[in-house]
Amino acid sequence: MDRSEIGRRRQLHCRAGDGVAGGAVGAPGRRLSVGAARAWRRDAGRHPSPNAGAVEAAFAGALGVRLGGPTQYRHELQIRPTLGDGREPTVADLRRAVALSSLVQAGAALLAGLLSGYRRRP
Fold first, then answer.
1. Minimal CA–CA distance to 44: which of 95, 100, 88, 84?
2. How many of the other CB atoms lie within 10 Å of CB of 58?
3. So, what pathway does this thing act in (predicted)?
4. Contact by Cβ (8 Å): 59, 50
């Protein structure tokens, strides 16, 4: 094999299952995105706060948990609509939510950095 063939797809490699490996690597992110988008579209408007509803619904969908329902505050019980359709959240889900929040923040910072370097030509 000479240098010109490095990185070139060959029949042998195409049958080796690189598509399967790529699908396996992308599956968790794809599942996370689909769950977040589905819950966001369906549930965001049901939250009493229009700003918090979108974020809470997306996180509920991404984490596979159900948020909302009866919520006890200091002086009252509020019956809120549920966001997401997963299981009841646990302490481990709180840790996952913090990690997801950190990833979202890092992604937003990266996007802001990329966009700040982009200049339109007059």
1. 84
2. 24
3. Cofactor biosynthesis; adenosylcobalamin biosynthesis
4. no
> Coil, helix or strand for 18?
helix
In whole angstroms, what is the distance from residue 85 CA to residue 25 CA?
A: 25
Provide DSSP, 49-75. SHHHHHHHHHHHHHHTB-EEEEEE-SS
Closest by CA to 57, choosing from 33, 82, 92, 83, is: 83
Could you report the per-residue pLDDT of 41-78, keeping only the tens digit for each?
888 888 778 788 888 888 889 999 998 889 898 999 99
CB 75 within 8 A of CB 57: no
Can you give the pLDDT at residue 41?
83
pLDDT, averaged across the chain: 78
Single pTM value for the model: 0.63
Give the whole-angstrom CA distance, residue 55 versus residue 38. Answer: 12
Closest to 80 (Cα-Cα) out of 97, 66, 91, 98: 66
Q: What's the token pair of residue 47?
A: 């939250």
